[in-house]
Design brief:
The relative contact order is 0.13. The protein contains ten helices and 13 strands. Helix 2 runs parallel beside helix 3 (129-144) and helix 4 (165-174) crosses helix 9 (292-306). It is globular, with a radius of gyration of 21 Å. The strands form four sheets. Strands 3-2-1-4-5-6-11 form a seven-stranded parallel beta sheet, with helices on both faces. Strands 7-10 form a two-stranded parallel sheet. A two-stranded parallel sheet has the order 8-13. Strand 1 (2-6), helix 1 and strand 2 form a beta-alpha-beta unit. The chain has helices at 12-22, 73-83, 129-144, 165-174, 197-210, 227-238, 249-254, 280-284, 292-306, 318-331, and strands at 2-6, 26-31, 44-47, 62-67, 87-93, 148-153, 156-157, 181-185, 191-192, 195-196, 214-218, 225-226, 243-247. It has two domains: 2-153, NAD(P)-binding Rossmann-like Domain (Rossmann fold); 165-193 and 223-271 and 290-324, UDP-galactose 4-epimerase, domain 1 (Alpha-Beta Complex), CATH 3.90.25.10. With 332 residues, the protein is an alpha/beta fold. The structure holds NADP nicotinamide-adenine-dinucleotide phosphate (NAP). NADP nicotinamide-adenine-dinucleotide phosphate (NAP) is lined by residues 7-14, 31-35, 49-51, 68-69, 93, 95, 153, 155-156, 163.
Length: 332
């Protein structure tokens, strides 16, 4: 297969390229050459900014396009203007953030999407990201019709994750210095979802090879997972001597601890529905999720090999966590 990745040098796109080359496909990447241009010398690299001149796409044809780098609909339309009629399959990577509401089946693939108050805005913020992805989806469907696949991943995790969210837990659990207690947020029974980037990459290539169209949530694991199971698995994999100290979400809220950012991956009970996105449709088309232990160990191995730093603003600092745990113990 002749495959074009719009992106391909950071995280999800990087894994798609790696697996595509392993599967013997001919791969072209288009990117600006800023991230890691030295990657994949065996592939063709088109250097272009998708916000600017796209003549590198002129007169070219691909069996399939995987678009990991569209954040505003103009970027999708600009690609369409160059490639319409000359690609067999176009896969836009969107997000579950596109959903308007997660309650009462709100994240079934046919559910309503967010709507921007000002559809002309291109400012990508926490408030506009999902609605802009929804507009990208509409632009992609209008442009590529029945050749269009839209994927809506939940939290993507694993090696080369630039966001540091799941990675923070791996680094925290593996930390040998300091106290043995690890602050475990909320209730061990609370739901949690995330998907290994390599499982999305494998599914992406399978669908490109088949020319699948339609809209698919992508999340993991296959069977429901709780925060308790997630953190116990992390503890077993990375530091069995650690003790998980479960701290009530009301206490955390009173201490102004923010879910998702101060304690990444975790969501409080008011947002549990976000960690219950249905994935039966993707599973029916071949999505499989590797064991959690593999994701934990491989993410840890990557962190160590890359000397991956903690990301600013992601996760509690050691000092803040220690002071929260001290306050929680005093209260007991
Ligand atoms: N992380 C999550 O948990 C999560 C969850 C749901 C959905 N998603 C979606 O998944 C996708 C993840 O993408 P990724 O970053 O992992 O993909 P990637 O393809 O590995 O990396 C992004 C690529 O886009 C290129 N790029 C960025 N801006 C560009 C521009 N203006 N023109 C041309 N190339 C450009 C970058 O290279 P240069 O910088 O060199 O140009 C890089 O190669 C995103 O669409 C995101 O919204 C992520």
């Amino acid at each position: 297969m002749n495959l074009l990745i719009l992106g391909g040098t950071r995280f999800l796109g990087r894994h798609v390229v790696e697996q595509a080359l392993t599967r013997g496909h001919h791969v072209t990447l288009m990117h600006r050459g800023r991230g890691a241009p030295q990657l994949f010398p065996e592939a063709e690299h088109l250097i272009a900014d998708r916000d600017g001149d796209l003549t590198v796409l002129d007169h070219r044809e691909w069996d399939a396009v995987v678009d990991t780098s569209a954040y505003v609909p103009r970027q999708v339309r600009a690609v369409e203007a160059k490639l319409a009629g000359r690609v067999g399959h176009y896969h836009l990577v969107s997000s579950i953030s596109a959903y308007a509401d997660f309650e009462n089946g709100g994240s079934q693939e046919a559910a309503a999407l967010q709507v921007l108050a000002d559809p002309s805005t291109e400012a990508i913020t926490g408030d506009t990201y999902g609605a802009l992805k929804a507009l990208c989806e509409q632009a992609a469907q209008a442009a590529f019709g029945e050749r269009c696949l839209i994927s809506r991943p939940g939290l993507i995790v694993g090696p080369f994750d630039p966001t540091g969210r799941f990675t923070w837990w791996v680094q925290r659990l593996a930390r040998k210095d300091g106290i043995g207690d690890v602050l475990a947020p909320g209730s061990p029974d609370s739901p949690v979802q995330f998907i290994d980037v390599r499982d999305i990459a494998a599914w992406t290539l399978l669908q490109a090879e088949r020319g699948t169209a339609g809209v698919f949530n992508l999340n993991g694991p296959t069977d429901p997972l709780s925060m308790g199971e997630f953190l116990q698995a992390g503890r077993a994999a990375l530091r069995p001597s650690a003790n998980l100290l479960w701290v009530d979400e009301s206490f955390l809220a009173a201490q102004s601890v923010a879910a998702w950012s101060d304690l990444p991956v975790w969501l409080p009970s008011s947002s549990f529905a976000m960690h219950r996105t249905p994935t039966a449709k993707a599973q029916a088309t071949g999505l499989t999720c590797r064991p959690l232990m593999e994701t934990l160990l491989d993410t840890h191995a990557w962190c160590q090999a890359a000397q991956e730093p903690l990301r600013l603003g992601v996760g509690l600092t050691a000092e803040r966590e220690a002071s929260l745990l001290a306050a929680w113990r005093e209260r007991l």
